[in-house]
Structures are given as structure tokens and as C-alpha cells.
Amino acid sequence: MNRVVTIKDLVGMDIRGFHLNRLIGAGSYGAVYESSSGSERIAVKASVREWDVLNEAAALQRLFYCQYTPQYYFHEETTTPDGILHTIGQELLGPDLETIRRSVPWQAIKRPTLVRIAWQALSCLEASLFHPLQPIVSQSRSLTLGWPITIWMTMVI
Ligand SMILES: Nc1ncnc2c1ncn2[C@@H]1O[C@H](COP(=O)(O)OP(=O)(O)OP(=O)(O)O)[C@@H](O)[C@H]1O
Fold first, then answer.
1. Is the CB of 142 under 6 A from ligand 1?
2. 146 lines ligand 1 (CB under 6 A)
3. Per-residue pLDDT at 142
4. 43 lines ligand 1 (CB under 6 A)
5. Second CATH level (architecture) for the domain 6-155
6. Ligand 1 contacts CB of residue 73 (under 6 A)
7. Is Acetylation tagged as a keyword (predicted)?
8. 33, 93, 132, 144 — which has fewest CB within 10 A?
9. What is d(CA 48, CA 90) in angstroms, rounded to the nearest whole number?
10. Partners of 91 in the beta sheet?
11. C-beta contacts of 14-20 below 8 A and 24+ residues apart
């Protein structure tokens, strides 16, 4: 599979009964789609990099009861003509901080909100330390935390 082009071009595909409706965004190793099955809406992250997907799936499973990470639903391997596609079904979160910041007229996040974000980020770090991730997170990784906004925090362990 051409990693640069096709991973961002999966709209219309069905994964585990979820229809990929819209590309939300893409990161260093995958693309995230807003997906639905009936009235249920989730996020599906797709990648061809098996190890990275398995790492993220394992981290989300370990943090399943942590209120600062998206709920984990499934990991799926789909054989396509271009190779094996790895996907993670997870809770659909709101927009990320940068999107929110750019959408407000003053292009900045106000102090009371920043304080709350900092508190949530620290709580996530605390939770991740409580559920040791060293065996599965061996380098710089990102986790989604916080609802209803998506905050990305790089954990270097
Ligand atoms: N569960 C989710 N619900 C809604 N949006 C999400 C979800 N997970 C990721 N996103 C969004 O999808 C986009 C791509 O996320 P992804 O995790 O692939 O990469 P990233 O964290 O932005 O970058 P990198 O992987 O390089 O750290 C980001 O805008 C992110 O906010």
C-alpha cells in the first residue's frame, strides 16, 4: 500500500461494520476517520505499520478505565489488494486544541481553560505511571486524553 497517498483515502470503506465517513486527520503513522454504524459514531485509526498500531491498541487497553484516554473498541486486520491494513476502533473525541485555538476570534486559549488542560495532562501522566507502559511504549508516543477535546501529550519513557 502506498503509505503517503492511500492511507488517507479510505473514505467509503467498511471496517468491522463501521463505515468510514470522513478523514479527521493524519499523524506520523496513520490516518483517523470519523466512522459510523447506525447511530453509533466512533473514530477508526488506520495504518500499515502493524507494530505501532499494536502498541497503541495495547496502551489503550491498559488505560481502559482511565477517564483521560479514549475508550478502546477493537483492533482489526483487513487484507486489501495493497497489503494488510491495521485499524483501531476507538471513542470519537472532539477537535484537538490547535483546531480550537484557531477557531476562536482571539486565536488563544484563555487561562482558566489552560489550567484545566494542564490538570488533565498531569492526571493522564499520573494514570500512565500507575499502569506501567514501558514494555509497550519504548519511545516517543502520543495518547489522546480529555473530553470533549483532544489533547495530545508526548510521553517519553
Ligand atoms: N479518537 C479520536 N477522536 C477524534 N479525533 C482523533 C482521535 N484520535 C486522533 N484524532 C485526531 O486525528 C488526527 C491524527 O491523529 P494521529 O493520532 O494519527 O496523529 P497525531 O497524534 O496528530 O500525530 P503523531 O502520530 O505524529 O503524534 C489528529 O488531529 C487527532 O486530533
1. yes
2. no
3. 45
4. yes
5. 2-Layer Sandwich (3.30)
6. no
7. no
8. 132
9. 17
10. 42
11. 15/44, 15/46, 15/76, 15/78, 15/87, 15/89, 16/74, 16/76, 16/87, 16/89, 18/42, 18/44, 18/89, 20/44, 20/46
Residue 81 φ/ψ, nearest 5 degrees: -60, -20
Cα distances (angstroms) measured from residue 71 to each of 23, 133, 153: 19, 17, 17
Q: How many other CB atoms are there within 10 angstroms of residue 99's CB atom?
A: 13
pLDDT tens per residue, the chain (157 residues)? Answer: 554 448 999 999 999 999 999 999 998 889 999 999 999 999 999 999 999 999 999 989 988 888 778 999 999 999 988 889 999 999 999 988 888 889 999 899 889 988 998 888 888 778 777 766 544 443 334 444 434 344 444 443 3
* ipTM for the complex shown: 0.95
